[in-house]
Each structure stands twice: as C-alpha cells, then as structure tokens.
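Putative transferase
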Amino acid sequence: MATQNSISCAQIQNGTTTPHPRPPYIPNHIPDPNYIRILDTTLRDGEQAPGAAMTSEQKLELARQIVKLGVDIIDVGFPSASKDDFMAVKMIAQEIGNGEYEDGYVPVITCICRCNENDITTAWEAVKYAKRPRLITFIATSPIHMEYKLKKTKEQVLEIAPKMVKFARSLGCNDIQFAAEDAARSDREFLYQIFGEVIKAGATTLDIPDTVGIMMPCEYGKLIADIKANTPGIHNVIIATHCHNDLGVATADTLQVEEYSGLHLQPHKALVGANAFVHESGIHQVSYCIPNNVQNFYVMNLTYYTTCFSITNIKVKNKM
Ligand SMILES: CC(C)C(=O)C(=O)O
C-alpha cells in the first residue's frame, strides 16, 4: 500500500519530505504531540458535491489511489444514502481496511451516519469489516438547522447525541467521531455542553465543521480555542477540523487553524506561503513561527493538504 507516512508539522515547516514516524494508533489520543492525523473525505464529502456521484466500483478504485498518499483515515461514504454507497463502504472496508502501509500502519476506514439507530446500524454493518473501523455520527446543532431541518429542540438534540454515541458503542464500535453539523453557526455554550455529553458517552473524536463555509479565519480559530478551553473532558478526545470553501476562505481559515495547531504551511504555497510576493533582493522579511504543542489534533480536507496531496475536495452545499 502507501509508500510514505503522513507528514508532521516539522516537515511542513522545514519543507522536507523525510517520512516522520507514525505513532501507534489510539482512537482518542495521538502519542506524538508533533504528529497530525490526516483524514481524507474525497469519497464522502467530496462525492456529495453536486454532479460528483461515483459508483461503488469507481469509489473502490479511487480508494486504492488515496491510500497511496499514506493518509491516516479515509471517510468513504454514507451507507444509508443508497445501496450502492453501502456496497462501496463495505468493499473498501474489506479490501483497503485490511491492507497495511509499508510502515505497518492499517488505515482507519470511516463513514457517516445520522444520529439514529437505523443509520448507525447500517453504517456499522458496512464498515465493520475493516480492521480499524470508525463511525462518524452527526447531528445539527445550529438553531436554524435544529428548527427547520430536524424540527427538534435543543433539549432533544442534547438527549439524542450521547444516546446515539452509546448505541454505536453497544454495537462494538470503539472509535466514534461525533460531528456537530453547522458548528460554526451554533451557540457556543450549547456546543460545550453537547460535546461534554458525547465525550462522557464514549466519543473519541470531536468534529467541528464549518458546514456552510461561513467563518472568517479568526472566527474559526477562536471557535476551536473556545471549545478547547470550555468543554469538559476535552483532553480525552481528539479535535478534528472540517472547513468548507463556500466563501473561498477555507485556505485562510486553515491558516488560522495553523496558528492553534502549530501545523505550518509550506513556504512556497501560492498566494499565502511565506515566499509569496517576496523577492530575492532581501528587502521583504517574513517571520516564521515555531510550532506550539499540537497534542490530539487532526485536520480534515483542508485546502493546503489538497495542495500537498493533489486532492481536489471542495464542495458546494445547499444552504439552510
Ligand atoms: C457531517 C459533517 C461531518 C459534515 O460533513 C459537515 O457538517 O460539513
């Protein structure tokens, strides 16, 4: 399978390509504070872009290419969406999820499911064939989504989320990513509360999506920082970012995320890299920061990884 490990922030900062040893996989903890897990969601969120539908065979073929990048986690579909997507997840879990990278790492295979028993059971039936299966279960937490899409109150959502995480656990899944859909437009206090509850229920990763790509970089960075500072039990889980590019600011958002994670952009990145708009005569000096501690953090389909890995994974979503 893959020919190289994932990259570390030190590598990005130095612009080197020397493989950084991948730490052992523990669902809710990354033993090396300088290591950042990469989740590729081309086959799930990428495929949800209008007009981007793939057959299960095409998804399997693409999954065979994606693993060559050495990504840690692959989000491969939405099994409840269709029989074919169920098949795609199952086939990828069986083949790719039982393979091994050259460094001995077995990639995590994941898929999404709404916070209800049917979706979770269906998703588990599809993904459980992988050696390292993960479920991403999500529910909307913003007022607009809860009122008009879910037609549920905050209290109901707060009751459902931990209950469904426990349900997923009861099926035998010990790697559960909980996503607060539309987190960017959600009430902060509510986020701290629901995240605290799903951690207690057994979630191993918290996923904080800017679902409609609405946030400016400083706002997204502040959201992550606030969640880190205020969520009970946050040190027992991994934080996952998930930026959409609807306003064309996913790269900029990622740069802010960069500040909190200590994961730095390669200097030659077009437009935003340290070398952009700088010439050799030496009059433009650009400072470069040393990474902070980045324990328990990973990034997901961020645009500068799309540059590193040549994955195009930008999607347009219908707005609620
Ligand atoms: C379901 C979640 C993870 C999502 O894709 C989003 O909110 O953008």
